[in-house]
Specification:
The chain is mostly helical. The protein is built from 19 helices and 2 strands. It has a two-stranded antiparallel ribbon. The radius of gyration is 23 Å and the shape is flat. The model has no long low-confidence stretch (mean pLDDT 84).
């Protein structure tokens, strides 16, 4: 299952492929597992165990700096040795659906617990980390995905020093409170958008239905209306039912069109999903780019970009769910497109390397890790149904984005100033 799912994806993996690769009969498979999902769940637990084993041992150390290095070294080395297992844990895991969510949640909780163990083991004359375990996991997911997608898992152990440097960029001396645990990370109410920035609109706007019977509308208007309705219905239905359980019939019913109209525009539900995914990304990126250039300083520009991103999510929750959640269940092409979208946002971080002299020599891996951290925090809120709260989280998201380049205390000060001006 590890090999098959990492090559073709969980949804495309079949019991026949698994039994053939394993060299066993279907009868033997069903003696051990109730279903494909049951087998995948067991495989996921096994793969996660391989990756977490080194972290578990390292968490026992009394010095979190030594422990963090040992944990990252073990994790990166294990991924290089077992890339298929890493793909399952970091990328393919959500594809197995709601039935495996409890298992995945337990493993995420263990990762957070291990991270907190490092925090608690900080020596009295040392440092502690001012960043959440969710953000750390997002950074690792991004780094691992790029290495696996580029067929370069063997390069991961060579990135140890750069990854550790990024983690330590959020370190603060013991005795100072962690800003990420303060009330300043979340606003009491949503901030106002800078008047110079265009507010995101729903993507796509709800089109009017084509009148029944004879009408004089041009064919292009009719085709555009049908296409937009299908994209909207794809996002809405899949938010409710999930990609795996949604059928073309569900989308047709939601769009209020015929099956013939659907197949005139799209070859199957995956085609419709990918087009809906692409549409949402293009619109959001355009608004984000415009917002970036409206800021006076680089931190303000990053706030603007994240403000537009979070606003776009709140006005188009269905399309956000497609991007942040269902993309991991719709196959490798959908996953790759989301990662390409995430890469596009890295361009907004490039100015950070020129923000102060100390930032000029920072490894370029900082951009990958930082954007991965930000998007995983956003994805957590979308997944748990709290997308509407994201604009209030702008201080935290901006802090994560700029702290490696400005320094953590300067980042906290800047974010609080911007927040005060915008609320």
């Amino acid at each position: 299952m590890t090999e098959v799912a990492s090559q073709v994806g969980y949804l495309e993996a079949s019991i026949a492929q698994v039994t053939s690769r394993a060299g066993v009969s279907r009868a033997t498979f069903y003696e051990l597992f109730k279903s494909k999902e049951d087998c995948f769940r067991a495989t996921f637990v096994h793969a996660a165990g391989l990756l977490l084993d080194g972290m578990r041992r390292a968490a026992a150390t009394s010095d979190w700096r030594t422990g963090a290095r040992a944990a990252l070294d073990a994790l990166l080395g294990t991924i290089a040795e077992h890339p298929a297992a890493a793909w399952l844990v970091f990328i393919e895991g959500p594809a197995s659906g709601a039935g495996s969510e409890e298992t995945r949640a337990a493993l995420r909780d263990e990762f957070r617990a291990l991270t907190e163990a490092f925090f608690e083991a900080t020596p009295s004359d040392g440092y502690l980390l001012d960043i959440s375990p969710t953000a750390l996991l997002g950074a690792m997911r991004r780094i691992v995905f790029l290495a696996l997608a580029n067929h370069a898992p063997d390069q991961l152990p060579c990135m140890l020093d750069d990854v550790l440097a990024w983690v330590l960029s959020y370190a603060v001396p013991v005795g100072e409170s962690r800003w990420t645990l303060s009330p300043h990370v979340q606003l009491e109410r949503a901030p106002r958008l800078d008047p110079a920035i265009a507010a995101p609109i729903p993507m796509p706007p709800e089109p009017e239905r084509v009148p029944r019977g004879r009408h004089r509308l041009p064919p292009s208007v009719v085709a555009r209306s049908h296409r937009e309705r299908i994209l909207q219905a794809t996002a809405t239905v899949m938010t409710d039912k999930g990609y795996a359980d949604t059928t073309v019939a569900d989308v047709v019913a939601g769009a209020g069109i015929s099956r013939d109209v659907f197949y005139h525009h799209f070859s199957d539900k995956r085609h419709a999903f990918l087009e809906a995914q692409r549409r949402g990304v293009q619109e959001t990126l355009l608004f984000s780019a415009e917002a970036f250039f409206a800021g006076r300083t680089w931190p303000e520009r990053m706030w603007n970009v994240l403000h537009v991103l979070t606003e776009a999510i709140t006005v188009s929750p269905g399309f956000a769910h497609l991007q942040m959640v269902e993309s991991f269940t719709a196959g490798i092409a959908a996953i790759q497109y989301v990662q390409e979208m995430t890469t596009s946002y890295m361009v907004f971080l490039q100015e950070g390397y020129r923000y102060r002299p100390e930032a000029e020599a920072l490894p370029r891996l900082f951009s990958q890790a930082t954007i991965g951290a930000v998007f995983d925090v956003v994805r957590r809120e979308v997944t748990t149904g709290r997308a509407a709260e994201l604009p209030r989280m702008l201080p935290l998201l901006t802090y994560i984005s700029i702290a490696p380049f400005t320094g953590v205390r300067e980042a906290a000060r800047i974010v609080e100033e911007i927040a005060a001006a915008r609320t």
